[in-house]
Structures are given as C-alpha cells and as structure tokens.
Amino acid sequence: MAALGALAPLSARAQAPAWPTRAIQMIVAFPPGGQADVTARPLASALERVLGQAVPVVNRAGAGGIVGSASVARAAPDGYTSLLALSSLAMLPESERIQGRVPAYTVEQLAPVARITADPTVLVVPANSPWRSIEEFVADAKRRPGAITYGSAGNYSTLHVAMAMLTGAAGIDLLHVPFQGGGPALTALLSGTLDALASGPGPALSHVKEGRLRALASWGRERIPGFEAVPTFIELGYHDVEFYIWTGFFVPVATPAPIQARLREALRGLCEKDEGLRRALDAAGSPIAYQDGEAFERFFREDSARLVRAVQRIGKVD
Questions:
Q1: Higher confidence at residue 251 or residue 38?
Q2: Which of 175, 226, 285, 294 has the greatest count of CB atoms below 10 A from its CB?
Q3: Source organism's superkingdom (predicted)?
Q4: Residue 310: which of 160, 123, 118, 109 has the closest Cα?
Q5: Considering Cα of 221, then 223, then 116, then 126, what sign does the dihedral take?
C-alpha cells in the first residue's frame, strides 16, 4: 500500500495535460503605444523563448480598459488567455458602480500572478508650451480656470486619477479630455491638441529626450531614472500627490494552480535573469520592479483599496 501511495503523485502528473501546447494570448486592454503595451511586447517575446509557444500581444481597447479586462475575466481558465494590466484594473469596476452600472468584471475574477513594473507618472507638456515649471503651470491654471486641457486613457483611468490628485491638491480646475488609451492621448499631446498629460515615463521618455515634450514634475517619492532633473510633487510641497502606474500579469481566477505556478516561475526567471528583457524595459524608461506570490497579492490589495478611494473622491463623471 505504501508503494501504491508513493506512486500516486507520479501517476497524477503523468495524466495531467501538457501545458502549453499552443499560443498564449497576452491581452492588453489599451491601444498600442501606452504603458501596458510598452511592457507587454518585450515581455511576450521573452516568454515565447521560455515557454516554447507564441505569445501574441492582442490590443483589445475600449471603455478605458474595461473591454479587454472583462474579456480575460470571462475567458476559459485554461492558461491560454492572460492579461497584462495596469493599476487601473481595480478602479474601473468601482467607476462602473459610481456611474450606476453593473461592473463588466470584478478583480475577484482575476488571479494576480506577478507584478512586472511600477512607475510613477510624470507630467508632460509640449516643448513649445509657456510652462517651464510646475509653479508656472499651476499659476496659469489659477488665472484661467478650465482653460488648460489634459488627456487620459479614459474616465477613472490611471492617468485621470493621477491628474485628479494634482488638481485637488493644487486647487486648480483643468479640462479633462478622455481618450481610449494612453497612446492616443500621447499622440494628441504631441500634435498640439492637448496641453498636458500624466504619462507613464516609458512612453514619454524618447519624446522628452528628442525635445518634443517637456517634463514638469513626477508623482513618485523619488526622482525617476531618465528624468533626474525633474522634481517630484512631494519635493515641491504636494505631499499627498503620489501615484504609480504598475503593470501586472493576471489570468482567470480558476486557472489551475500548476499553470499559474509555471507562469510565475517563467516570469520570475525572466525578470531576474533575462538581460535582454531588462535592457528593453530600461530603454523604455520602465525598469523591472518584480513581485509575485503573497508580496504581489498584498501590494495589489492595498494599492487597489487606495485607488478605489481616489475614484470615490472623483465621484460621478457626466
């Protein structure tokens, strides 16, 4: 009997289906060019090498991230559909409730596998704008309430909440212009149809270096690599203006534990040892800030609670 008992785990493993045997979709709930997309593409390429299957990045944009996130929450929990999400993941269901709608998904439908990056946002304006400091920006906004526009990835998105924190702390009124993602908002800023944007550092970095955009301040507790000359809002006396765009890897909550463990193992190995991935994310201005297991679950729970409170402070948006 003891021998049979010892063989049982081996038999179970032998009968378990092999995974992966086909492509694993990585859903990005935003258009190309935004922070999630900037992280997803080199990560997917690296995962392909480790898992031995294609990992296509699928941009499924809509409703500020709701459409793509909901599609993964409802997907078959077989390990072949994943989500590379932003910190807005928890804010969007709460925004739906505030608007009087039934949320298209809840965070309980998704299992947090690993955090990949965690970047503070940075306030950028066109290089030909009149503002060379946050002091000038705030002073102008106070002189012209509602005249200065800023973009976001949609109502209640990370970029919207970050700017709402600033407008509340500075006592200014700006005109919010929502887009379908951070990429389109950044394009609008570059074209001159927007005045300002709270951007992830990765998408903005090359444009700042090329002299097309000017960075005024960042939402981090410390200055951002690549933006060393840019002060933080905390340095400037806005002590409650602190915000991060993080990217995290999620799967449907019922995805079998062995598959989640395999994904976690692959992601951890890549983030710790893959120099190509590290260089790609560093070059994009979005360095690796890896977490998994209980640490990421705790971070996700605490950060989500803080962001949900911020959305509740914004209230209903007409």
A1: 251
A2: 285
A3: Bacteria
A4: 160
A5: positive
Sign of CA pseudo-dihedral 252, 254, 258, 261: positive
CATH number for position 132: 3.40.190.10
Claim to verify: residue 93 and residue 126 sit in the same structural domain: no
* Residue 230 falls inside a structural domain: no
- CA distance linking residue 73 with residue 50, whole number of Å: 25
- Dump pLDDT digits (tens) for 243-267: 888 999 999 999 999 999 999 999 9
Element (H, E) at 198: strand 196-199
- End-to-end CA distance of the chain: give it in Å, rounded: 69
The DSSP 8-state label assigned to residue 80 in this structure reads S
Residue 128 lies in a domain: yes
- Find tokens 């608007």 and name the residue: 99
pLDDT digits (tens, 9 = 90+) for 83-130: 999 988 998 999 999 999 999 999 999 999 999 999 899 999 999 999
Q: What is the DSSP letter of 12?
A: H
Q: What is the CA radius of gyration of the chain?
A: 21
Closest to 194 (Cα-Cα) out of 160, 154, 151, 139: 151
Q: Confirm whether 210 is domain-assigned.
A: yes
Domain count, the chain: 2
